[in-house]
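Example 9 (inverse folding). The structure is encoded as follows.
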């Protein structure tokens, strides 16, 4: 599977979800003022954008992943942006403010009372990948805006790095049993968007002994229609059934499963699983 990996640098404050930017939001931003054919729009599959914060004035451009694990470790590490990196005037009301406003890059921050001492410079980036657009001009992904308050100049990004890679060339795919699956982005089980069908819990996964898993709901505006999504939340791990194909399951995790998988929902990583955890 051919995918394009992108790293966008945040050039202005960002207002929105501090966990991720949805694939639908990225796809909508990409279409504004850019020429995509109807076929490209139909084929475009955009992952969720994950925030990555780097320390220092210089940012090393990540290499193309050579293994399955490198892809997730380098490009898809899911971590919430810490409260310390929220704009100071909004930090005290972070719990009340929805959504919070994050710092642009580069910026300096010090926890000490004397800000002139031991300041550290941070840069904020957005990492995502796109499938179905082989040979696309990466400059189309430059200078897009994400998040809220875009009319106030927030959420402006610029293209920092782009790599095109073929997952068929990777090695080191997980093959030892037992294996588990960890969801990088929420799995969408149902949506009120017109024309969508409910998605059953994956048959290749072992449900928890209690039969329960952490669920939540999320609002999403799709093509001008407000809809409600029922999600199996990200970060949860499930055992992979012994008769499931590890390689095929790994590929499913990158191409994603569930409702609205085209827009980033249902991404997961296969890993060596221990029932004691």
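The amino acid assigned to each position is listed next.
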């Amino acid at each position: 599977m051919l995918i394009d990996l992108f790293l966008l640098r945040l050039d202005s404050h960002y207002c929105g979800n501090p966990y991720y930017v949805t694939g639908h939001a990225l796809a909508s931003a990409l279409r504004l003022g850019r020429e995509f054919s109807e076929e490209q729009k139909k084929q475009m599959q955009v992952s969720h954008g994950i925030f990555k914060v780097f320390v220092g004035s210089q940012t090393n451009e990540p290499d193309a992943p050579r293994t399955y694990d490198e892809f997730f470790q380098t490009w898809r590490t899911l971590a919430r942006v810490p409260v310390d990196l929220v704009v100071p005037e909004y930090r005290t009301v972070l719990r009340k403010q929805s959504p919070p406003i994050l710092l642009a890059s580069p910026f300096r921050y010090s926890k000490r009372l004397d800000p002139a001492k031991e300041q550290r410079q941070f840069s904020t980036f957005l990492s995502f990948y796109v499938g179905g657009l082989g040979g696309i001009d990466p400059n189309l992904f430059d200078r897009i805006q994400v998040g809220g308050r875009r009319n106030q100049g927030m959420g402006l990004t610029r293209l920092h790095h782009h790599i095109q890679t073929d997952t068929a060339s990777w090695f080191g795919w997980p093959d030892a049993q037992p294996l588990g699956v960890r969801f990088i982005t929420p799995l969408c089980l149902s949506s009120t968007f017109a024309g969508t069908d409910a998605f059953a819990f994956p048959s290749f996964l072992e449900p928890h002994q209690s039969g329960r898993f952490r669920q939540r709901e999320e609002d999403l505006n799709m093509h001008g229609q407000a809809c409600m999504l029922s999600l199996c939340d990200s970060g949860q791990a499930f055992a992979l059934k012994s008769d499931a194909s590890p390689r095929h399951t790994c590929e499913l995790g990158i191409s994603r499963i569930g409702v609205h998988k085209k827009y980033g929902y249902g991404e997961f990583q296969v890993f060596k699983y221990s029932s004691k955890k």
